Amino acid sequence: MTANTMKLIVGLGNPGSKYNGTRHNVGFDVIDRIASTLAMGEPATTKFDSVIIETRCNSEKTLLMKPQTFMNRSGLPVKEAMTFYKADPATDLLVIVDDIHLPCGTFRLRQGGSAGGHNGLSNINNHFGNMNWSRLRIGVDESGIIPQADYVLGRFTPEQLECIEPALTGAVNAVSIWITEGIDEAMNKCNESGKTETRN
Predict the structure, then answer these.
(1) Band (171; pLDDT cuts 50, 70, 90)
(2) CA–CA separation, 5 vs 49, rounded Å?
(3) Which of the two ends of the chain, N or C, has the fewest CB atoms closer than 10 A to its terminal CB?
């Protein structure tokens, strides 16, 4: 890694106050926590149809990004930012999303893999033509008898909130390691604490 490379940390969610605190917006939540710890005092601006913060994590130039295009159209802003900074998706892009296939309170880092039915990941894949980039999935539990769209756009139960808090803290730590040490080290150091099993 070089200090001249821009690392893009993209949290996926839906814009607007009505979606604040919903399961589908945990990507935004992680970005907000990163901003308050790794980018304290750095101003947020608007670019690439996203809310962005440019900062540094140790010596690494880092862009924190929350696309404002709604989840299923996240790919274009991400593609525009990657092109602008001449970044390589395989080494410079980390996307943070919710995952109904992981238990609430867990998280999992991996390089590549399928979209797993996630509309945001699918749309990014459509713009890049491959899935060879890092993603950090935050577990929000299966939807059960609730229709999936209603479930992910709903808010955490009190019991889930108790579980999700430490997961978000762990996710921020995982992102920091990914920025400075890369995906392999971040997976080795953080996936065990995420308490999940690998899933394609």
Answers:
(1) very high
(2) 22
(3) C
Spatial strand order of the sheet with 50-57 comes to 45-47, 50-57, 60-67, 6-11, 93-99, 134-139, 107-111
The answer to whether the CB of 97 falls within 8 A of the CB of 115 is no
41 is written with which tokens?
């005092």
- For 170, the token pair is 């762990």
- Name all domains of the chain by residue range, CATH numbers in brackets: 6-194 (3.40.50.1470)
pTM listed for this prediction: 0.91
CA distance 33 to 12: 14
The torsion region of residue 114 among left (phi > 0), alpha (psi -120 to 50) and beta comes to beta
Nearest to 139 by CA among 95, 82, 194: 194
Of 4, 31, 17, 154, nearest to 94 by C-alpha is 31
Residue 153 predicted with pLDDT over 70: yes
Residue 67 DSSP code: E
**Token pair recorded at residue 109:** 């880092």
